[in-house]
Specification:
The protein is an all-alpha fold. The chain has helices at residues 3-12, 37-51, 57-69, 76-88. The chain has a domain at 37-92. The radius of gyration is 39 Å and the shape is rod-shaped.
């Protein structure tokens, strides 16, 4: 067995002299983003809904007062029309 041949083969597979890669010239450049107008509108609407009360206290108080005084009358015709309108999505 020739030892010098093994040394020659091992030298072939050694990494060559390598240099470290230098940094590019764009060191100060940063990524940028832009929010679309529809996304901004969505954020405004979402914030408004989150800040709005779940229950309209003024409407509840008005209806309670109307029920207590007997002034709250519901037309069966109006109820039927609204049910049909919601079901079929049109007005009679």
């Amino acid at each position: 067995m020739r030892v010098d041949a093994i040394n020659h083969v091992s030298q072939m597979y050694k990494p060559a002299n390598t240099k470290k890669a230098g940094k590019t010239g764009e060191i100060g450049k940063q990524d940028a983003y832009e929010i679309s107008q529809s996304a901004k509108d969505y954020q405004v609407a979402k914030k408004a809904v989150a800040e709005a009360p779940e229950v309209r206290e003024d409407e509840v108080a008005r209806l309670k007062e109307a029920l207590a005084s007997g002034a709250y009358n519901v037309s069966s015709q109006e109820i039927a029309e609204k049910m049909v309108r919601n079901l079929f999505d049109f007005q009679i």
